[in-house]
Amino acid sequence: MKRFRFIVVSFLLVLMIGCTSSLQKKAPVIPETDPDIDRCYMLVESADYAEALTVCDRAVNRNPDSFIARASYAKALVESGRFAEGIEQYRQSLDLTPDAVQTRMELADAYTRVARYSDAVSEYKAIRTQQPSYLDAAVRLAQVCEETGDFLGAIDALRDAVAIQPGNDALYLDLVDLYKKAGRRSDAQNTLREAAHAFPEVVHVQYAAGVLWQEMKQYREAIDLYRRVQRLAGDYQNTAFNLAVCQYETGDIISAEKTLAGLLARTPHAAPAIVLQGQIAYDRQAYSRAETLFRQAIAIDHRNGSAFVMLGNVLRIQGDTDGAKDAYRQALRINPNDITAKKNLKRLY
After folding, report:
1. ∠56-59-65 over CA atoms, to 5°?
2. Does position 30 have pLDDT exceeding 90, yes or no?
């Protein structure tokens, strides 16, 4: 918009000079704006980078102090894969206009794309100093810090992002993931608790809270969250199965069986649910039924290692040593690090 105002003002000045030429015979000449500057900007905005390279190069050569020409040329170069040249043009454009936040953002992004992460971090931090409320700068700084293993830096940046936009539930979940990667489970849980309270009607937030509570073996709290998810969205992802697992872990076998029956009525080929049914039968020493269920699950999903381990257990108890060995070996083919399968197989020799 400023460029257009400049053109209008220049035009008016030319008219004024023309009108007063009889009084001022040596009137100053007002230079016209180079049309290539506006053209290269428009070409870049329309993503016509091939044409923009030619026009912008010409505009920069004729107008070396034009911020618009250099910033446009920089973007055209970067988007054409000429990163080193583009980065240099970005730097020169910022020498002309240091407070151009969006251009600095593009420079930081270019550094990120060529894995110059320390330079990217410096530029993102500079943007955050210039404009602390710039959400994208905080988010991208967090992403780069995470990429380089600087989880503390990523956490600080993402916490700032949450403060900038507290109504963005996705930022909370990203922060929770960072806390978990950094081994800060308590902070992850506190943040997710805060998110669950702030977004009681957002299904994926409630579900994520349930999953974390389940991972931390806080099964009763997880049950409440999964039930809330069911009220909000019915069959959402693995809610029913996870709920059944939590009910089983709290000893509420009747509720677990009811949940599993409902799940399998809707999804008959849910192998994990059938394995859990088999586990319940195994606990009750109903070994024949347990074996049937484990074999049924394996027929559906022959990569279900848990089903093979449990099948091995039930066959061992029933005296079928060779069958048990084969089941444990199958489990180890799926997951060579399965400790239970290794231990139980070793017992049979």
Report:
1. 115
2. no
CATH code for the domain in which residue 214 is found: 1.25.40.10
Same domain? 221 vs 239: yes
Domain membership of residue 191 (yes or no) is: no
Q: Is the dihedral of CA 330, 331, 333, 339 positive or negative?
A: negative
Give the number of domains in the chain: 3
The contacts of residue 78 (CB under 8 Å, 6+ apart) are 86, 87, 90, 106, 110, 113
Residues recorded for the chain:
349
**Tens digits of residue pLDDT in 167-193:** 999 999 999 999 999 999 999 999 999
pLDDT for the residue 33 = 76
Domain boundary among the residues 222, 248, 265 is at 265
- Other Cβ atoms less than 10 A from the Cβ of 280: the count is 19
pTM > 0.85 = no
User: Among 98, 118, 150, which residue terminates a domain?
Assistant: 98
